[in-house]
Amino acid sequence: MAATLNRRDIACDDPNGDQSKNPMCQREMIEIHGKSGNSDRRILARSIAMGLLCLLLIGDEAHAYIGPGAGFAIGSSMIAFFLAFLSGLAAIFLWPLRWFIRFLRGRRALSQARIQRFVVLGLDGMEPTLAEKYMAEGRLPNLEKLKNQGSFLRLGTTAPPLSPVAWSSFLTCSNPGKHNIFDFLTRNRRNYLPALSSVSIHPPRRELKLGRYRIPLGKADIRLLRKGKPFWHVLGEHGIFSNVIRVPITFPPERCRGLVLSAMCVPDLRGSQGTFSYYTTAAVHEEHIGGEQIHVTRDGDAIRSHLVGPENGLREDGGAMCCPFRIRIDTPDQATLTVGRERVALTRGEYTDWIVVEFKAGLGIKVKGICQFLLIKTEPEFELYVTPIQIDPDKPAMPISYPSVYATYLSKMQGRYATLGLAEDTWGMNAKILDDDAFLHQCLEADEEREDMFFDALEKVKRGLCVCVFDGTDRIQHMFWRYIDAEHPAHAGQAEPQRRDAIRELYERMDDLVGRTMAECDDENTVLMVISDHGFASFRRGIDLNVWLEQNGYLTLNAEGREDKYLAAVDWSKTKAYCLGLAGLWLNIKGREANGIVDPSDADALRDEICEKLAGLRDEEKGKTAINRAFNTQKIYSGPYKTEAPDVVVGYNNGYRVCWEAAIGQPTNALFHDNTKAWSGDHCVDPKVVPGVLFCNRKIKTANPRLLDIGTTALDMFGVGVPSVMDGRPLEVADADGSFPSNGHVNGRGNGKATKKRHAHGA
């Protein structure tokens, strides 16, 4: 699911730390690809060559990320080449020993395995009812073939069924109480501001002052807040290689026996979750959520402006670094862009390729990023859209892969690609700056880039785990659901009629992807699973839970500033509960929140009371149930982090979701609101409404499989015991000949004990 909040309003910081000074989002060489057995030597040779090439390529200048609330120390960047060079030398001299050890471990690991390769193709948000509909119409022949060959089941999701929550449960095989991700956002306990839930970014603590310059001493602190161990780490501990591509909540990437390219929550070069820029000669009328409008003037046929980069933490006077550009208008449909040393032709309605842009910090330090330009029109007003400026994968300014050379390898192999965690600009479309075609282009391009990565991995990883997640299914359904829901407030107009089949065409493209994947996985030693983390539903009406809390006496608002964001008008001395984020409600607990008033001993009873009142909430205007049920999270989650969860998670009915304003703590004057935005489909609802899909090339006997069971199934089929901390259970999957093992599973749980009583986990 793409971000649903103003991307500049998310504080990338420790949710429990003081943000007053940092308010807003401020090599070891291993094989490039791994194969067990006799192919290790070829891969190792290729690895050394690629590693040395990358070392030479990254050593030409110091690269730093100097942004609001984040940054790489310039000093550490200047010695990065030497460290990488030493690492490369060590890899060369130690490779015979390392190869021999891995050869033995790989043979021992696979000696207990039922398979040689386990492939997971993730299609984020694929809806089972649509898959069934299009299969029945004969539009998805490959998924139909996969279903008949093996299995097609609904896959239980998480509560709440949000992408960061669900994929975190997928990779840790655990409920949210064990991985600490409950929403895109959490709240800062000290000031009630929203904060990104998955990562905290802090600049180096020490610096050296030289006149007007400040030289950071040390590294930036980029910390993954997701807890728990990914199942591919367990595989790696048993000598089994993994190639993991764009699975959400893997930033910053963690060390493992394999390759990882991070996805959701990778920031742009400014440290935000994606800030687009819109240049126009028209008057500035409104603030664009998720982006900024920059007024430009036309001087004859020329327009001059600049790209806005990260804050310059190298200088005392700071401020955002800028990269100037010039546009010469040649014809009504053609223009020429000059940025840096590049001159690029612009054609109205067509994106440029990825363009490298530089921001000069001083002392010879340059910060590089990549972006694309889209000329919207030249008359009567000039309009230009620029994607968020993203981390350059060729020379990443922040760690986006493990090992770091993997991102560079992919860039050298296929050209530069989108690195932003949420690469498809849903906010540009919500603001009506991007039309259907312009948005679809981003989705298609992102999926095509990912296909190159995925099939490269399938070609090279013949033994081990291969996982790749595609986002297009999620983003396109979010923005085009209005076309398949006649009851939606945004159903009529708003875009070109030829895009009314965008979702059907999406499923047909994904079916083609599945067919090509099946062709690469046609051997009897490969298990292929096609999964989605959740399904999809319509989002017709938004509910302002802060209004509901106010109406029911749980929240008090001051008259002044009532409609300000971030709960600015809340009277905390009289407030017991508040809404912030997409998942649910928080209690204002004494000793936990800065101005808490709820006695901790009364908290659980208050949670139950709110859940009981919310269940069955009616939208009388439409005559429908808006909320099916609500969950006391302390009863549905288990694990050491369940106390970090929202106190109540809301299970909305199909057609409803928290309204846009409530998600950022901006109270309105009504409980229900029509959703007229292009963002018309969603899945932040009751998890029973939006199960995912599970297709497999083998028969599966287990009833009611869950997303958190997929990783434990991979462990089991590789002959690796499932750690007792994991909640997932291995699915009963047939062997290649169609028979099931007599004991159900190979190894079962790692501790040899029966599975303990399971919590609901919202599935």
Describe the structure.
With 763 residues, the chain is of the alpha+beta class. It has three domains: 7-184 and 195-270 and 410-538, 3-Layer(aba) Sandwich (Alkaline Phosphatase, subunit A), CATH 3.40.720; 276-391, no CATH class; 542-679, no CATH class. Helices cover 26% and strands 24% of the residues. The strands form eleven sheets. It has an eight-stranded mixed beta sheet with strand order 4-38-27-3-26-11-12-25, sandwiched between helices. Strands 15-16-17-18-19 form a five-stranded antiparallel beta sheet, with no helix packed on it. A hairpin with a 2-residue loop joins strand 20 and strand 21 (365-371). It starts with 39 loop residues before the first helix and ends in a 46-residue tail after the last helix.
Number of separate strands: 38
Rg estimate, integer Å: 26 Å
What proportion of the residues form beta strands (DSSP E)?
15-25%
> CATH architecture of the largest domain, please?
3-Layer(aba) Sandwich
Number of self-contained structural domains:
3
Poorly predicted ranges (pLDDT <50, ≥5 residues)?
1-81, 750-763
Q: If strands are numbered along the chain, what order do they take across the biggest sheet?
A: 4-38-27-3-26-11-12-25
